[in-house]
Amino acid sequence: MDQARRIEELIAPSLEAMGYAVVRVRVSGGQRLALQVMIERSDLEPLTLDVCAEASRTISALLDVEDPIGGSYILEVSSPGIDRPLTRLGDFERFTGFEAKIELEAPLDGRKRFRGRLLGTDDETVRLAMDMGEVALPFGAIATAKLVLTDELIAAAQTEKRE
Description:
- The protein is of the alpha+beta class.
- The chain has two domains: 3-78, 2-Layer Sandwich (GMP Synthetase, Chain A, domain 3); 89-162, SH3 type barrels.
- The chain has four helices and eight strands, in the order H-E-E-H-E-H-E-E-E-E-E-H.
- It is globular.
């Protein structure tokens, strides 16, 4: 199991109990490691600085006990932002209608990179409308995916804040 997945499995239950969902865990850097934890509220309300600080204290305490990194690191707790990564199958359903960039682990029909409008999911498949037509991408084959910052996405985020 890779380090990021191990850390996610360690911290997710406590964060979920606090009302937060882990969006992504990433360990990066060379000499000075950085642990980036993206979270969102389970009720999908906006994150505040206080929420990030509370989550950071909880994560720090859990990591101090288990020590999965084994050395010094910088902990960054943040919201996923408007052009967020899509990491769970439900994200592709939740953001149906918005534009996304998806990169696969290995080529599918000679292609690894896809960009288009999300059409939702069917079982373990992500559907995407592209200029060339609709494509179905196996969720398990996706290396990275994120929303594309568009005027439509910005308008939806502003409407969401007002509600």
